[in-house]
Amino acid sequence: MHRPLTSNRLLLAALLAFAAAPALAADVGVSVSIGQPGFYGRIDIGSFPQPQVIYAEPVLIARPAVGVPLGRPIYLRVPPGHAKDWRKHCGKYNACGQPVYFVQDGWYQNVYARQYRERGYDDQGRDRGGHQGKGKGKGHGKDKHRD
């Protein structure tokens, strides 16, 4: 049996709906592209200069299953602290089972991002003629990772 809404129940329902509204509005995606200062994620080196990395050896959290070959290392730009506590953060980048080199922030900003923009890549990694460039990872680079 359904009870009619009393003024107390109506007030409570309105308060709950009002309280939930900011949480729903706060779920706004942030799009940051390669070449912008706030970008964190995978970068493909391609024809770019050899990156300066934080650690000389790639970091690997979880080895692939037996019989599955270890993939080539990937290059990531991550926020400060993520490289130090990589076990905690690798899932955000879908990179727990891959060897990872973390690029130095100065190299990213002063070399990679500058040349990326100078070469005329758009936010989808295409050059001025619409061709896919070597400076853009597939399916990466659109989301800003935060903690």
Quick description:
This protein is an alpha+beta fold and 147 residues long.
Instruction: Please tell me the overall pLDDT.
Output: 73
Shape descriptor: globular
Instruction: Write down the secondary-structure element order.
Output: HEEHEH
**Main beta sheet strand tally, sense and closure:** 3 strands, mixed
Count of extended strands:
3
Integer-rounded radius of gyration: 22 Å
Q: Which regions contain 5 or more consecutive residues with pLDDT less than 50?
A: 10-29, 134-147
Category from helices, strands and their pairing: alpha+beta
Taken as a percent bin, the fraction of beta residues is 5-15%
Ends: how far apart? 47 Å
**Spatial strand arrangement across the major sheet:** 1-2-3
**Distinct helical segment count:** 3
- Which range best describes the helical content: under 10%, 10-25%, 25-40%, 40-55%, 55-70% or over 70%? 25-40%
Task: Tell me what the structure shows.
With 147 residues, the chain is α+β, with helices and mostly antiparallel strands. It has a domain at 31-118. The chain has 3 helices and 3 strands. It has helices at residues 7-25, 86-89, 105-118, and strands at residues 41-43, 74-77, 100-102. Strands 1-2-3 form a 3-stranded mixed β-sheet, with no helix packed on it. Helix 2 links the parallel strand 2 and strand 3 (100-102). Mean pLDDT is 73; it is low at 10-29 and 134-147.
Task: Throw out a few tags for this protein.
three-stranded mixed beta sheet; globular; 147 residues; 3 strands
